Amino acid sequence: MTDIRNIAGAREVVLQRAEALRGLTQPPVPGGLQKPEPGAFASALASATALQSTTSLTPPVVAPDAGVPAAGLVSTLSSLLGRVNATQVREDVVTESYQRGEITDVASVALAEQEASVSFEATLQVRNKLLSAYGEIMRMQV
Predict the structure, then answer these.
(1) Distance separating alpha carbons of residues 111 and 20, to the nearest angstrom
(2) 51-55, 71-75, 96-100, 138-142: segment of lowest average pLDDT
(3) Are the C-beta atoms of 26 and 142 separated by less than 8 Å?
(4) Mean of the per-residue pLDDT values for the chain?
(5) 36-73 CB burial, b ≥16 within 10 A, e <16
(6) Is residue 117 part of a domain?
(7) How far apart are CA 122 and CA 73, in angstroms?
(8) Which of 85, 107, 113, 128 has its CA 20 to 30 A from that of 141?
(9) Residue at 96 is within a domain
(10) How far is CA 93 from the centre of its chain?
(11) Is the pLDDT of residue 119 over 80?
């Protein structure tokens, strides 16, 4: 459940940063080019930088033997993908054990299957949101 909260928090931070970065571009005027206001770029860049410095995509995780927080988004995503993979592998093991007759509890098999399905669907949703945010950033005019 905390993974979903972390993902939701990361989504909110990405949306806030995207909103701050929208100020970096001026919408085109249908009749021609619009001259940007003096200092608009600098103020939007400053607000985006301030937002970046005050928020992080992941809560700081302190290793037991080190006093430094874990590295940002890439390590968080790779650890989340590792957890999803572990859930998928556990579901495969439980299903195979049920098929061999080692496990007779159908509820535990169904629960493992649902956990794997939900974690995979959540991963797909995160991937789709990241691709959407990336596409939006690429469409921005600087």
Answers:
(1) 42
(2) 51-55
(3) no
(4) 74
(5) eeeeeeeebeebbeeeeeeeebbeeeeeeeeeeeeeee
(6) yes
(7) 17
(8) 128
(9) yes
(10) 28
(11) yes
Reading the block at residue 68, the tokens are 């430094």
Retrieve residue 39's tokens: 């200092």
Q: What is the DSSP string of 42-106?
A: HHHHHHHHHHHHH--SS---B-TT-SSBPP-HHHHHHHHHHHHHHHHHHHHHHHHHHHHTS---H
Single-letter code of the amino acid located at 32: G
Cα separation of 137 and 142, whole Å? 10
What's the pTM? 0.47
Which residue segment(s) compose the domain that 31 sits in?
2-60+70-139
User: Is 65 within the bounds of a domain?
Assistant: no
Residue whose pair of structure tokens reads 């033997």 in the numeric block:
65
Handedness of CA 132, 134, 135, 136 (dihedral sign): positive
Q: Which two tokens stand for residue 91?
A: 């579901």
Domain count, the chain: 1
